[in-house]
Design goal:
Oligomer: single chain
Shape: globular
Distance between the termini: 36 Å
Order of helices and strands: EHHEHEHEHEEEHEHEEHHHHEHEEEHH
Largest sheet: 7 strands, mixed
Bound molecules: pyridoxal-5'-phosphate
Structural class: alpha/beta
Radius of gyration: 21 Å
Number of strands: 14
Low-confidence stretches: none
Mean pLDDT: 97
Number of helices: 14
Strand order of the largest sheet: 2-10-9-8-5-3-4
């Protein structure tokens, strides 16, 4: 029998496991998206959104994956002929660059090798030139398991007058994203990461200034239309109704746990994952000073390929983690520990990893990873 997805230990870097409460919320008869019931749902979601962002800015919900949110943000705020800086250090930084270049023909891109922090000094030099429309960056680079420390560039961006636009898709509700103190003008979140809801909705948070300067860059993703509608508890087009029902539950659960509580729990799970990896000699891929708390990227043990690690995890132990992207395909695997990931998930995953290493004659200290996790448990 092939491994059962219903009972799988599911720790990819998003979409993450969906809370059963959110699944049940979606098993609901069709409702009129222009009727009172659905307006009530949208109203509740609108009131709950500040819980997700930890801030009360202008907020929009788009039917579409995280990339729809990014495209809405960049297409509405960057301008042809007005220089925009993109900072990149992984697959999603490169994606930002691709999207921004669709809407702006004067883009300066500063990149670091994958796994390294964004180049702060070079970025500050560029920002201090003073002619920038916007600075665009990924907060948590999911592809390499690295969280960029945006506090290192935030004061320079603020002083320059550039808009500060951030891909927070795998960061929001997982790691701190202090919108007000960093002066972020635009932040995009995705439903399938820290919220543990199904994929397919993007949430966008805007500052007053960003809201005022929006121009429709596309028809469907025009943030002005989405913001105006949401203010009336409505959506401009037919929304993904079941996903909205799930989002309402996801926001309620986040409110119960609190944003700070979710971030602190995610941090503990991340620390346990790193301690467990260290205990059995699995090497972190990114610069350890900037490791992400929502996803841990580990190198495949030397000489072992994906089919000896990830494939065995899935086929034999029904544990699913994620492979590498781009040049990292086959070289790293990534464990997502955001949303509703929990201690038993980590224990099962590392027990299986230990079995795989033992089989390959590479496990010096049996049980060490499980002990490391246990020591971090509250
Ligand atoms: N940006 C980051 C940081 C991501 O982690 C992802 C997805 O994993 C995306 C963008 C793309 O989001 P989506 O696949 O939801 O469009």
């Amino acid at each position: 029998m092939s491994p059962d997805p219903e009972t799988r230990t599911f720790l990819i870097a998003g979409p993450v496991r969906i809370h059963p409460r959110f699944l049940r919320a979606m098993s609901f008869p069709s409702v009129n998206h222009r009727g009172d019931y659905f307006h009530g749902v949208v109203h509740e979601i609108r009131e709950l959104l500040p819980v997700l962002f930890g801030s009360k800015g202008h907020q929009a919900i788009l039917t579409g994956s995280g990339t729809a949110g990014l495209e809405a943000l960049y297409s509405g705020l960057v301008r042809p002929g007005q220089r925009t800086l993109v900072l990149s250090n992984g697959n999603f930084g490169e994606r930002t660059d691709q999207i921004v270049r669709k809407y702006c023909d004067t883009v300066t891109t500063l990149s670091s090798p994958w796994g390294q922090h964004i180049p702060v000094e070079a970025a500050i030099r560029e920002i201090e030139k003073g002619d920038l429309r916007a600075v665009c960056v990924v907060l948590n680079e999911t592809s390499v398991g690295l969280a960029n420390d945006l506090s290192q560039i935030a004061p320079a961006v603020k002083k320059s007058g550039a808009l500060f636009l951030v891909d927070g898709i795998s960061a929001v509700a997982g790691i701190p994203c202090p919108i007000q103190s960093w002066g972020l003008d635009g932040v995009v979140a995705g439903s399938q990461k820290g919220l543990a809801a199904p994929a397919g909705l993007a949430m966008v948070h805007l500052s007053d200034r960003a809201r005022a300067e929006l121009r429709p860059g596309t028809f469907y993703l025009d943030l002005v239309a989405h913001l105006d509608s949401l203010e009336k508890d409505d959506t401009p087009f037919t929304p993904a109704v079941p996903l909205f029902l799930a989002l309402r539950e996801a926001l309620l659960l986040l409110k119960e746990e609190t944003l700070e509580g979710r971030i602190a729990r995610t941090h503990r799970l991340a620390e346990a994952t790193r301690a467990a990896a260290d205990a059995i000699g699995l090497e972190l891929f990114p610069d350890r000073s900037y490791v992400s708390d929502t996803v841990t990227a580990l190198r495949n043990p030397a000489g072992m390929e994906d089919k000896q690690v990830r494939k065995v995890l899935l086929d034999r132990y029904n544990v699913e983690v994620q492979g590498g992207q781009g040049a990292l395909k086959g070289k790293v695997f990534r464990i997502g520990h955001m949303g509703i990931a929990d201690w038993p998930d980590l224990l099962v995953t590392f027990a299986a990893l230990e079995k795989i290493l033992a089989q390959a004659g590479r496990l010096a200290h049996p049980g060490a990873s499980l002990l490391a996790i246990e020591q971090k448990m509250p």
